[in-house]
Structure formats: structure tokens, C-alpha cells
TrEMBL record:
Transmembrane parts of this sequence: 21-47, 53-74, 172-191, 224-247, 259-277, 350-370, 376-396
Compartment(s) where it occurs, according to its Swiss-Prot or TrEMBL record: Cell membrane
Domain of life of the native organism: Bacteria
Renumbered residue ranges of the record's region Disordered: 423-458
Low complexity: compositionally biased ranges: 423-439
Name of the protein: MFS family permease
Organism listed in the record: Streptomyces clavifer
Location (main, coarse): membrane
Residue span(s) of domain Major facilitator superfamily (MFS) profile: 20-401
Membrane-topology descriptor: Multi-pass membrane protein
Gene3D superfamilies per the UniProt record, alphabetical: MFS general substrate transporter like domains
Length: 458
């Protein structure tokens, strides 16, 4: 009886989604299975190349800056060139730049190529999210985004474990392996994923198309930009799991393996709970889900102020991971709901930029607060940010239309015609003087340099 119930639940979770979505899902999984740079960049630079933690922080910041810049450019490309060409360009560029990075020796060359890798690896995200919105029915989008998020975390969990063994043998093998997996991802997109961008409707000469969406249009969309700002606040909170948490655990005398044990709970819970939680939330009010998840995220990190052992740290990770499971697909669905079909690339690019910017700012924020005021103030700040974000969602989401009636129909379900395609996608903490003893600060810096590079999960 229990097995039959599980089979029914699994069938209902995956049923009704178009074949194109599953090929896109497969490309996402393959891409994340090959993730190496995001996991072991800091270790590679400090242990294998012998560079300082400060230099590793600079490279990580440049990698993040590349992602911030590419988000908007990739959004424009997604709308102008199409979803599929943008994904192919991004994936091929990522494969080449990651492979080149593995052979770089000069510090300036490493920093420059890392910046390019950050740009290329982030460029496919607006296109992937816009295509999913194109091909999936509005009532199924939260489920589709949840499944995609599940694939991201499953791939990341497997690749992190495998990359650890690969790194013991050769870091270069890891870079080359990621390049190969990214090429496989591009091949899947090229052979199996058709273009889904809606075609513009021809108008009379001298008449401006109603779907002429520019970046300035996105910036003038007050409600959407409010959501982007709130997304930035929420992302700042979640990023502390990868930049503030390891430093706090280090100052408590815990080791890198202790941090690995605590943060592994995040990946395990997402893989185990994302699908059943999605079944629970997919037909519930997204406004309420965003408010609740923001509060739980903020106070989940706030509870870290009371942690002192690996077990308690792991319990706090459980709390904010539940918020992450609910928030990520719900927030992506709201972004799609607020985006016109013909401007999804630009809107998704702006949303992706909020996470990329948070990944860039979060290490600086955590380093400054911990160095000057202590870790407890950082966790208190997270609680405040979660409260502010919840209040912001409550204000912005009032009078929001129903997602099914407001969202445009997917491609192939009565929507605007689409273009036919016959051809078969821690580090860097501030170093200002503080009141902590020099030995304690040096120990924290060494601990931080050993942690993986945080990458936005969008």
C-alpha cells in the first residue's frame, strides 16, 4: 500500500509536463553533475597553486562580478536571439573557458579567465528559466521549477562528492571533466531542445510593437523591481550558509569537515523533500508562501547565534533549508507571472542578477559584520532581513492576479506562435582590523579559504 502510494505520488509529480521540459531538465542535471570550479576554486588556488586567501577572495569576487554582468546581457540575448541560441553560446563558452582556466598559471591570467567563466556559466540561466515558462502551463510552473531546482541540487551533491576524489588525483582533471560535461549539455540542447521564443506580431509601418520590451521597461516596472530587491535580500540570507556559516563555525573551533557535515544536511534535505514539499505547496497562495519562507529563512539563520556544536548547527541548517525549498520555486514562479512572454529573457536576467549580486555582496557583508561586531550580529541581521523581506512581499503582492489567469499560455497550448526550428544550455571577507585576537582571526581566515565557492542556486 505504501509503495503504491509512492508510485502514485511520483507519477502525479512528473505527469503532464511536456517532453521538451524533460530534455531541458536533463541538460540541467548533466550541467550540474559536472560542476567543479564552483566547488573547489578556493581549495585549488590556496592548496594546489599556493596563493593566499586574499588572492582567492579576489578571484571569487571576479567570478561573481562576471555573473552579475552577464545576467542582464544574457537576458537581452534570450529575447533577441532566442532561448536556444543563448543557451548554446553560454554552454560552449563555459566549456572553453573552464578548460582554459585549468591550464592558467599566472595570477593575472587566472583572475581574468575566472571572470570570463563567471560570465559564461551564469549566462544560460535567464534562457533556461524563460524557456521553462514558455513550454509549461501556468498551473504547472511551480512544479516544473521545483523539479529543475531538485535536479540542480542532486547534480551538485553528486558532483561535489565526485569532485573531492578527482581533486585528490588532479585538479586539472576536474576542470577538463567540467568542460566535457558542459559540452554534453550543449549537445543535448542542440539535438533535443527546440526554440520556444514567441514570435513578434508584424504591425503597420511606423507603429511600435506592443511587445517591445527593453531593459528600461523592466526598470520602470515598480512591482517587479520591488520583487527583485526583495529577492536580493532573501539571497543575502541564504548565501550566509556558504560564507558566514563556515567562518562562524571556524571561530567556534570547529573544522572544515564539521562545516561539511552541517552543510551537507542542506543538500540531503533538498533532494529528499523538494518533490513532496512541491506537491504540498503547488496549489497554495504564492504570496503567503513567500512571506512565510522569508521569515523562516531569516529566523532560521538567526537561531545560529545559539549554536555551538555540529549537531545544533545542523539543526539550524534544517530550518532554513525548509525555507529555501519553499522559496526558490515560488519566487521563480512569481517572476514569470509578472513578466510578459515577449520580455521573459530581460525579466529573468534582472531576477538572476539579484542572486548574482547577493553572491558578490554576501562575503563582504559577513566579513565586515563578523570582524567588527561578531557572528551573533550577523545572525541577528539575517533575522531582520527576513522580517523586512516578508513585510515587503506582503505590501507588493496585494491585489496580485491569480497566476493561472494572469500567466500566458505555454507554447503549444494556444499561445502566440513560436519560431520554428528544424535543427535537431567565504571568501573575500573584509580584512579591516577588528577586536579579535590575531591568532583567532588568522585561524578563521585559513578556515574560510578552505570552503567552496558559493554559487547562486537559481
Amino acid at each position: 500500500m505504501y509503495v503504491a502510494g509512492l508510485r502514485k505520488a511520483a507519477h502525479e509529480t512528473v505527469a503532464g509536463l511536456p517532453r521538451e521540459f524533460w530534455w531541458l531538465w536533463t541538460s540541467t542535471l548533466v550541467n550540474r553533475l559536472g560542476a567543479f570550479v564552483a566547488t573547489f576554486m578556493a581549495l585549488y588556488l590556496t592548496l594546489d597553486r599556493g596563493y593566499s586567501a586574499s588572492y582567492a577572495g579576489l578571484v571569487v569576487a571576479l567570478h561573481g562580478l562576471g555573473g552579475v554582468i552577464s545576467s542582464l546581457g544574457a537576458g537581452v540575448m534570450t529575447d533577441r536571439l532566442g532561448r536556444r541560441p543563448t543557451m548554446l553560446i553560454a554552454q560552449l563558452s563555459t566549456a572553453v573557458s573552464v578548460a582554459v582556466l585549468g591550464f592558467m598559471v599566472h595570477p593575472g591570467a587566472i583572475a581574468g579567465v575566472a571572470f570570463v567563466v563567471g560570465m559564461a556559466s551564469n549566462a544560460s540561466r535567464p534562457a533556461v528559466q524563460a524557456m521553462m515558462a514558455d513550454i509549461v502551463r501556468p498551473e504547472d510552473r511551480v512544479r516544473a521549477f521545483s523539479l529543475n531546482y531538485w535536479a540542480i541540487n542532486l547534480g551538485f551533491a553528486v558532483s561535489s562528492a565526485a569532485a573531492g576524489f578527482i581533486a585528490e588525483y588532479s585538479y586539472l582533471a576536474g576542470f577538463v571533466g567540467e568542460a566535457v560535461m558542459t559540452l554534453v549539455c550543449a549537445v543535448v540542447v542542440f539535438l533535443k531542445v527546440p526554440e520556444s521564443r514567441p514570435e513578434a506580431v508584424p504591425l503597420a509601418a511606423g507603429t511600435r510593437a506592443p511587445d517591445d520590451v527593453r531593459l528600461s521597461t523592466v526598470l520602470r516596472d515598480g512591482r517587479f523591481m520591488g520583487v527583485v530587491g526583495l529577492s536580493f535580500l532573501v539571497a543575502l540570507i541564504f548565501q550566509q550558509g556558504y560564507v558566514g556559516l563556515p567562518v562562524a563555525m571556524g571561530t567556534d573551533g570547529l573544522s572544515s569537515s564539521d562545516f561539511g557535515t552541517a552543510i551537507a544536511v542542506n543538500g540531503v534535505l533538498i533532494v529528499a523533500l523538494q518533490i513532496p514539499v512541491t506537491r504540498f505547496i503547488q496549489h497554495r497562495d504564492p504570496r503567503r508562501l513567500l512571506i512565510i519562507s522569508s521569515v523562516v529563512a531569516g529566523y532560521g539563520f538567526g537561531l545560529t547565534a545559539f549554536a555551538g556544536s555540529v549537531g545544533v548547527y545542523a539543526l539550524t541548517v534544517c530550518v532554513w533549508t525548509i525555507a529555501e525549498i519553499v522559496n526558490a520555486p515560488t519566487q521563480t514562479g512569481i517572476v514569470v507571472q509578472l513578466s510578459p512572454a515577449h520580455g521573459r529573457g530581460r525579466y529573468q536576467g534582472m531576477y538572476t542578477m539579484s542572486w548574482s549580486a547577493a553572491a558578490l555582496v554576501a562575503p563582504l557583508m559577513s566579513g565586515f559584520v563578523i570582524d567588527h561586531y561578531g557572528a551573533d550580529w550577523l545572525w541577528g541581521t539575517c533575522a531582520v532581513l527576513g522580517t523586512v523581506a516578508a513585510g515587503g512581499y506582503w505590501l507588493l503582492m496585494r491585489n496580485l492576479p491569480d497566476p493561472v489567469t494572469a500567466g500566458s499560455a505555454p507554447v503549444g497550448a494556444g499561445s502566440a506562435p513560436v519560431t520554428a526550428t528544424a535543427t535537431p544550455d567565504a571568501v573575500g571577507a573584509a580584512s579591516a582590523p577588528s577586536g579579535r585576537p590575531a591568532a583567532e582571526q588568522a585561524s578563521a581566515e585559513r578556515f574560510l579559504a578552505e570552503q567552496p565557492l558559493a554559487e547562486p542556486k537559481v
